[in-house]
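Q: Focus on the shape:
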Amino acid sequence: MSKIKIFTDSPADISYDVVQELNIGFFPVRILFGEEVVRDYVDITPAEFYKRIKTCDELPTTSQMTVLDFYEGFKSAIEEGYDTIICFTISKEASGTYQNAHLAKQMLEEDGIKADINIVAGYLSYVYGRAVVEAAKMAEHGCGKDEIIETATKLIDSARVYFLVDSLKYLKKGGRINSTAATVGDILNIKPILSIDGGLVTVADKVRIYFVETFIFS
């Protein structure tokens, strides 16, 4: 029976406690606050990240996982006795991470390091994170590679995601929306309803939020 190791990256938004509990190989995105570099979910939690961006003048930048990161991670698992690797990455439309994982696989093959390495392009955030968690649980219970990949892929493909941002401030800072549209949107309290289509965030609709003040008399 194959010994299967599940890998993923931090954009899957799986808590680091769960990563450790399920023995998931983990590739964290590097976040740059000026000259300071921290590893997503390892050195900084999502709560700490959002707290910091509220006070910083410029949004932090990120650095995706390199070919070497994947090469060393896969090689380490193979040396530990895993003969099958299933790695889930952020969508290939959103990042070069998927391609870097494939290049690492190719380099291992060229170096004569043999293993059955499978790279699966996910979506964004926990849309594929939940599939990774399920895959790790299945691997622990001795399920085969094909069954794990089929189940995880179905979970990803069947997901439909819609979400609402509370403020256009960070979309503006990140260059995802122009300044005029952001200003008008904030004044009129217009919020975009976002979705995920083709591995990228898209605008599904726009709504205007009305707040009703409630008075309670005693």
